[in-house]
Amino acid sequence: MSLQNISGISISEFVIGGFDTVQRPLVVGVVVLIAYILVIIANLANIYFIVMDKSLHQPMYLFICNLAIVDIICCTSSCPTIISVLVAGYKTISYVPCIIQMFIYQISNTMEMFAISAMAFDRFIAISCPLRYHSMLTNGRSVLISVALWVAAFAILAIFPATILPLPFCQSTLKYMFCDFAAVIRATCVDPNPYFNDGSILFFFLMFGTFGFICLSYLKIVMVVVKMSSKSDKKKVFNTCFSHFIVIVCYYAPTFVLKIMTRIGVVLTLEERHGLMVGTIIGPSLVNPFIYCLRTKEIRQKLLKILSKVAPRS
User: Are 196 and 182 within 8 A, CB to CB?
Assistant: First the structure.
């Protein structure tokens, strides 16, 4: 598909040029490939355990399942392109798939924040109102919340393709790893800075809004825990929230450095930016399923049962 842009050039495909300076592309590509395969297997395993076990059909596990879906989509929206460039040396991507990739990546990145926030809300209700938890947050309402968040993400992030499509392009080479908004907007004939600023405002609003909601939820949880007299109850709350806390840190820490520090003047080399970008994509998606497999008793027991069946008997 070829699109003729006014005051620009005809673009039928883009060239991914973000890895031109990588010294050992095959090694890096194989590492990303292995990590991507682990992400898919681990998250699919979590989804399978939750879907197949009726005892896990509870709000907390439904939100974990939603997070696993988000992680799969987030990695799949970018990793195949990265792997094809590094391993196969295939550097081109057609115009329409590029725009779709940009849109899906932005949605999945936003949904990561929304999914983590929904899980914080679940923990807040469970710990603050334990006796009314199952009446306040039913499975149906949990699914409805997740669907509403997906619809909201699609509606909010539609601004990115709507912004890109009318713009003329002056080059076909993308300087970054795949078709994210920054890479595509730099290939246009317009000054990218106003678009970066608008995108940053939207992202900061989403990031600080979700992070603020998470912090308020945990502040309320801490207030409830302080009032508890039983050490066993406090320990149970800690164990319940610790997994989610790790998920929060794994997502927000690299994202904070990449998105916020660079906007306030911290200069990163292209290699450093790429490393942080890969970290924000693969890191949480790889850590999340293992955290919940290892720290969630029901899922851990189910996994150990399966492994004991396939393990060779002496």
Answer: yes
Specify the pTM. 0.87
pLDDT tens-digit map of 6-32: 456 677 788 888 787 778 888 888 999
β-bridge mates for residue 3, sequence order: 11
* pLDDT classification of 4: cutoffs 50, 70, 90: very low
- How confident is the prediction for the chain on average, in pLDDT? 84
Question: Which residue type sits at 121?
Answer: F
Cα separation, 118 vs 63, in Å, equals: 7
How far are the Cα atoms of 65, 186, 306 from residue 83, in angstroms, in the given order?
26, 22, 31
d(CA 215, CA 206): 14
Q: Hey, which bits of the chain come out as E strands? A: 13-16, 92-94, 173-174
Q: How far is the C-alpha of 5 from the C-alpha of 165, rounded, in Å? A: 10
